[in-house]
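Onboarding guide, step 5: your first structure request.
Type a short instruction followed by the sequence, for example:

Predict the 3D structure of this protein.
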Amino acid sequence: MDFTGYIFLTIAVVITMEGVTWLTHKFIMHGLGWYLHEDHHQPGYPHVFEKNDAFFVVFAIPSMLLFWFGTVDGINWMFFVGLGILIYGICYFLVHDVLIHRRFKWFDKTNNWYFRGLRKAHKMHHKHLGKEDGECFGMLYVPMKYFREARLSTIKK
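The system replies with structure tokens like these:
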């Protein structure tokens, strides 16, 4: 595969990871993995780290392994799949932990309609304190109504 193919593969993996994350969030985190995810749904969680942070490792391990096996005999397609997972992980961290939950105060003053739509959708997800009746399991793509609401409120200001 040539360099252009590797770029497209990486982009495809980043896009695919949103679906993988949605499925993992809905069926594992709100299913068998609820024990690890539950503290994330509790308001005012007092600790720096949550049990939910263990899911970071779940996604990091395949990425690291793909980097390893993707460089054993020169760079191959596995390296770029691992890179796509890593890029999505960085986006997830910046959106989920920094922008939405404000675990770091880097983007506190943003008024971007896209980011406000993501924040609103995630707030709707967290209104459910239990594992049932959840909604908005995605991270970078959420139902359009949240983006429309955010855009309209931005225009009105």
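Each response can be followed by summary notes, for example: Helices lie at 3-32, 34-37, 54-69, 77-100, 113-126, 144-156.
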